[in-house]
Amino acid sequence: MRLQWKYSLIINLTVIMVLVAFYFFDSIRMRKEMSALHALGAEQGTTLKIIAENTILNAVVGELTTSQAFNAQRLDQIIANLKREHQDMKNVNNVQVTLGDTHVRSSLLAQNNPANFNLDKNEINEIETKGAIIDTITEQSATSIIIKYTVQPKRLEFTQLQSQTSLDAADIPDEFWRMFLSTDFDLPVSTTITVEDKRTEYNYQTALNQGKFPFGLWRMLIANQIYLSPDAIVKLDEENNRWQITDLDSGHNYNLWQDENAFWIHIASADTGYIRVLFAVPYIAKSIRSSLLMHAIFIVIVGVLLVVLIDLMTNNMILKPLARMTEIIQNAETGNFSSYLHKTYASDEISKATRNLVRMFLQLKTSHSRKIDALGQFAAGIAHEIRNPLNSIGMTAQHLKTIFSQPDVSPKDIDEAIELLDIVDEKIEDLKQTSEQFLTLNRPRKLDLTTVNLNELLDSVLSEFVLIAEEANVQINKSYYTELPDLQLDEMLMRQTIFNIVQNSIQAMPKGGSVYITTTVEKIGNMPYILLEIRDTGIGIPEENQELIYDAYFTTKESDGGVGLGLAISHQAITAHQGRVEVKSKVGMGTAFNITLPVNTSENK
After folding, report:
1. Radius of gyration over alpha carbons of the chain, in Å?
2. What average pLDDT does this structure show over 496-519?
């Protein structure tokens, strides 16, 4: 679980670092592109604004000022002609013109549905202040410029048409004919119109003040390309010293006034509006495509980089260490691990496990060799132990043969034979005990339980070490719990166990020291236990050997003839009594064996 957590953490941190780096460099690239785009947009915006103001605005205002009426078809035609004739309008996508409000009345492109400008108060103020609003429409790859226009008053010029007394049909304007046709008045084409002379005292002001629309004024308006119906309604605006004219056909309202013997007319219903020009800006689409392409390239690079990094980390952190561990396991039969032990290993868990595996194999190999050697020594000892009784049995048997081969066997010979048979029986018992001791290493002990006081048993065992302790300059200190309860123990087996541990403690202090024997009672859970501690101030046991001391044939005293069975037998004996033994030791600070035995041993048997 720890390896998985560490590996996941490293992979996640690597991915995060790569993504952060990707975001950092990509944001720098995007900022540079946006800066360049803004600079280009500002430059293009200035150019486009000049085109919108000098070419389109002048044409629209000129037409509206000349006609003093909003003719959508005529405006569409004028703008279409501008787009064809002017090279600087080749990138114009559409021109939309409003009148009075934001409702589009004229458009270069056909409008299926009426369109409106969405201008808020801030945008209107910006147009009033800066003269235009320039915006980018990303989805259309276009730049929008909105400007405001104002229709100026028109001065009516007196033309030759006004002084004529008659007109031929060919000279009559189309608008005049349309007016008659719209009123169902049938006027032949060959008609000649005669203009009556008017009295000198009769002038336009008098007629207008009377709410009449003079025919001469109507003719002058037509001559100035302003077409009103002759039955227009005229009202006098005395406050502003002007006349208000309402054209019943078009619905337009006009202001008419005279200044220095000249008439001025101005559309009154709405004399302002907005023009929106949409310019195609292909560099925006090109920039977007380039940015998307670079972004895709960056993503591919980052993806490849992550795959390579994850593969390298997986290979170095997991696959290679596992391959080395597999190689070590496959070479386990050869037993050649020394080369692996001296290799350099990383600090990750797999490398640590591999190093520990090599050490374990080496320890197993060493332990196996030691066990083989100990087994040889033990076999030699067993052979020695068996050979002596067998020699004695053989000599006794030979002597018995001599006795009973005599012709006459005396009662004295029979008594001697009985003694010899007792010797044989004794030696056979020794052989039986020796073989039993050997066999119990590989099978559970059968306990011969009796009631034993552990304090008394300790005193009995320690009495055997009085002389040995004096010679070794070792002091034995006892601290017994006086009210120690009796135990059900195999006295012989427990005696041997205590003897082995005390003997090892004395042998661990070649320069002398102290052995501390302590007994106490403690409850573990609800069960009473007797605790026996045998502690010395000897050389201690190395940490790597502490788990091996209970193994049969493991010994660090080969030179002293040890075969490594004492602690193995002791551990087996304590376990058979349903107890446990723990060792605590530090090199140079001594060793403590803590033995725990349940009080009701016989019940747990």
Report:
1. 62
2. 90
